[in-house]
């Protein structure tokens, strides 16, 4: 015998699905938590610090929001961070509702005091990463190759760039976080002028030596962060970040800043780790994040107004996987 669902029963079922979502979001604090998680990922202690509340109270709010599908946990080694859901199905009523809540809450500007606290947390993360590279600048290659040999991601990334360069008229290039400068030879051979940007003086010194040895005369090495170049008003046709995102305090901001630094029709190429659970890399390699889901990069790029191009995934014997991703800025965007 076939069971039939009446329209009234369907309406009740839909109400049962929606009620927990609206109940979980019906609190000003929780809406502010969703607001600060728009692009960032924070741990319980960080969120407690942001909102001046005890960890137990924050954990309760996060548990309720997680159960309602408004956020999801992300394990980073022994720590749990929280982010907005990566997978929202446009055909599901619950996911449509969650997406609408995000769209509405994102229209509310963050209070100045929250912006300042978020910046303080990012600075703490940046100091942690910078301190690691200051201590281990001389062993950078050895440390990095604990995860992946340079050639394993540099060659595929270079091949993607060379293929695109055949049809593109790239004059200016930017490499964010050049490390020892091993990839700058590729950049210098494609663009007339290249900027190498790094916030580690020790790493820039090694990149400078590489440029001298390789006779790369069209490279401008700058100590600083992307804000440094934005303040100068620089603009580039090609931006590259090789194995950099997992070292930066707010990876999503790299996409926003790269988009702002790119000329119309420009291209952003990123190679980085896929999400993994090998937390030893935090201590041994200075990683802040244990890789990224491809959907995270896609979401951050779209949020920055960039469109996705080709994707390449490289599996490594030690269990890591590298993603090489291509993102484009509309030619009509300045």
Automatic annotation (TrEMBL):
GO terms for molecular function: DNA-binding transcription factor activity. Residues 10-105 form the HTH arsR-type domain. CDD domains: AdoMet_MTases, HTH_ARSR. Pfam families: HTH_20, Methyltransf_23. InterPro entries: ArsR-like_HTH, HTH_ArsR_DNA-bd_dom, SAM-dependent_MTases_sf, WH-like_DNA-bd_sf, WH_DNA-bd_sf. PANTHER family: TRANS-ACONITATE 2-METHYLTRANSFERASE-RELATED. This is ArsR family transcriptional regulator. It comes from Marinobacter mobilis. The lineage of its organism: Bacteria, Pseudomonadati, Pseudomonadota, Gammaproteobacteria, Pseudomonadales.
């Amino acid at each position: 015998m076939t069971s039939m669902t009446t329209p009234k029963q369907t309406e009740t079922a839909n109400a049962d699905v929606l009620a927990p979502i609206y109940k979980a979001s019906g609190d000003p604090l929780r809406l502010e938590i969703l607001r600060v998680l728009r692009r960032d990922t924070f741990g319980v202690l960080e969120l407690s610090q942001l909102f001046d509340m005890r960890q137990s109270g924050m954990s309760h709010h996060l548990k309720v929001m997680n159960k309602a599908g408004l956020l999801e946990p992300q394990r980073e080694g022994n720590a749990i961070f929280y982010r907005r859901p990566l997978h929202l199905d446009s055909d599901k009523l619950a996911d449509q509702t969650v997406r609408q809540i995000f769209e509405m809450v994102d229209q509310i500007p963050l209070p100045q005091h929250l912006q300042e606290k978020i910046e303080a947390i990012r600075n703490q993360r940046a100091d942690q990463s910078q301190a690691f590279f200051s201590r281990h600048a001389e062993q950078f290659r050895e440390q990095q190759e604990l995860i992946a040999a340079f050639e394993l991601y540099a060659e595929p990334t270079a091949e993607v760039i060379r293929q695109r360069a055949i049809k593109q008229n790239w004059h200016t290039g930017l490499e964010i976080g050049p490390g020892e400068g091993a990839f700058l030879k590729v950049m210098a051979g494609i663009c007339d002028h290249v900027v190498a940007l790094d916030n580690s003086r020790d790493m820039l010194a090694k990149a400078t030596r590489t440029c001298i040895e390789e006779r790369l005369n069209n490279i401008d090495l700058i100590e600083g962060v992307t804000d440094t170049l934005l303040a100068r008003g620089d603009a580039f046709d090609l931006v590259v970040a090789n194995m950099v995102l997992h070292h930066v305090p707010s990876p999503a901001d790299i996409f926003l800043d790269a988009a702002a630094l790119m000329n119309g029709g420009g291209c952003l190429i990123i190679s980085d780790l896929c999400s993994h659970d090998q937390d030893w890399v935090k201590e041994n390699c200075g990683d802040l994040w244990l890789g990224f889901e491809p959907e995270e990069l896609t979401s951050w790029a779209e949020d920055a107004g960039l469109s996705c191009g080709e994707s390449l995934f490289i599996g490594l014997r030690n269990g890591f996987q590298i993603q090489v991703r291509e993102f484009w800025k509309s030619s009509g965007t300045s």
